[in-house]
Amino acid sequence: MAKPGTEHGPDALREGGLIKKLMGLGLDVHDYGDVGTPSHEDDHHFDLPVKNPKHVATASENIAADVYNVIKSGRTCLALGGDHSMAIGSIFGHSLAEPEHVVVWVDAHADINTPLTSSSGNMHGMPLSFLVKELQPYISKLPGFEFIKPCLSAKNIAYIGLRDVDPGERYIIEKLGIQSFSMSEVDRHGIKDVVEKAMHYLDPEGVKPIHLSFDIDALDPSLAPSTGTPVPGGLSIREGNYICEELAATGRLTCVDIAEVNPSLGNERDNLITVNSALSIITHCFGGRRQG
Ligand SMILES: CN[C@](CCCC[B-](O)(O)O)(CCN1CCCCC1)C(=O)O
Ligand SMILES: [Mn+2]
Ligand SMILES: [Mn+2]
Ligand SMILES: [Mn+2]
Q1: Rounded CA gap, 129 and 273, in Å?
Q2: 110 alpha carbon to ligand 4 midpoint, in Å?
Q3: Please, are residues 191 and 243 in contact by the beta-carbon 8 Å criterion?
Q4: Does pLDDT of 2 surpass 70?
């Protein structure tokens, strides 16, 4: 991961009262615990500048298995990160259970660099490239990722909140025609129109299961300071809550990722602000409504 500390994200959310808040919504909550992610000493890939590939591969396979089991048991899965590379496993696991699902990716970043377009080598900037069928001819096969079968088409993805996109990602988004509502579209049309347009594009009949992959850095850094790649000019908590309320209201929200909460960044107050923003996002995905 780009910056150590995201491994403590789930516990920070638990300590912030996550389980109690969800139970307070009348939900039958089961905490499946942490996914096993053994680290690998010799974890580098000789001819590619990809960091921790074996670690990410092992974690992804474990996450996929756990997400699949949770969804197959009839529950809605809440996957807590952790680095956004977690979405490799969570989306793949979701697709094994619900092959028809669509993805709403809420993030300051597109996270669709291939190992060759990435300038950082950090896998949190690459998760979608491992999952999109149209990109497979361009993806270097990394050891440990053999289990992944690309499970998304470009038309199954919509971005909300983009404001820091690398040149290679912009090319991919435009070449594949991925639906992208950057912060410019949010400002131009308003969040209501953006969510309506995104859902009409992804699922005009209103029948498909939804995967929401929410990177906490989609929110403005004033709301989520404890995160690894903050970018000014993000979503307000009202906009973030609105997205979640609307997706929850479909009744088809089947898997939610909350990524990039990093309690080792910033001070105590920053941690509290970030955790509270993440808890607000989560509760509005699971039935919490501002109108009560
Ligand atoms: C925009 N792409 C970045 C950031 C990815 C953030 C991942 B997320 O999960 O937090 O969304 C940044 C690449 N830049 C690094 C600094 C120099 C310019 C490129 C990358 O490392 O690929
Ligand atoms: Mn990260
Ligand atoms: Mn991300
Ligand atoms: Mn991000």
Answers
A1: 31
A2: 7
A3: yes
A4: no
